[in-house]
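Summary for the steering committee. One of the milestones for this cycle was to obtain a three-dimensional model of the protein with zinc ion bound, which we needed before selecting residues for the alanine scan. The sequence and ligand used are listed below.
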Amino acid sequence: MHTRELYQQVILDHNRSPRNFRAIEGASGHAEGNNPLCGDTVTVDLTMDGETIVDVAFQGAGCAISTASASLMTELVKGTSKDEALSLFDRFRDLVTGTADAQVSEKLSMFASVKDYPTRVKCATLAWQTLKAALEGSQETITTE
Ligand code: ZN
């Protein structure tokens, strides 16, 4: 597998120094996710003010793709509304599954090559699925299987 193409600079950078890698004390939303296929686990904490995500953070252990995706996700959804975050997730999923010509930011477009590696799609979307569960107040652990 030609993983080298996946490990572009942004992904490497976020994997090396993940942003918002911490727990949030007194978080208003929390969810856990895991991707047994690869062994990635992630927890997402967030603080809402009305419909706005004022803070979001993650913790967990996983491959470079899952960690970088989680890190980038926290950067992108912080300060957005719940609806904006869910819509961004839809576009990101379209991008990594190659189902639509997704309009995404330059940073997210770094993940476009994931669509050529179907087993990596779950790594890339795990943090977003977990974010969605945290936003929707789901108490269940999200699993990609
Ligand atoms: Zn993975």
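Key point for the committee: DSSP finds five helices and four strands in the chain.
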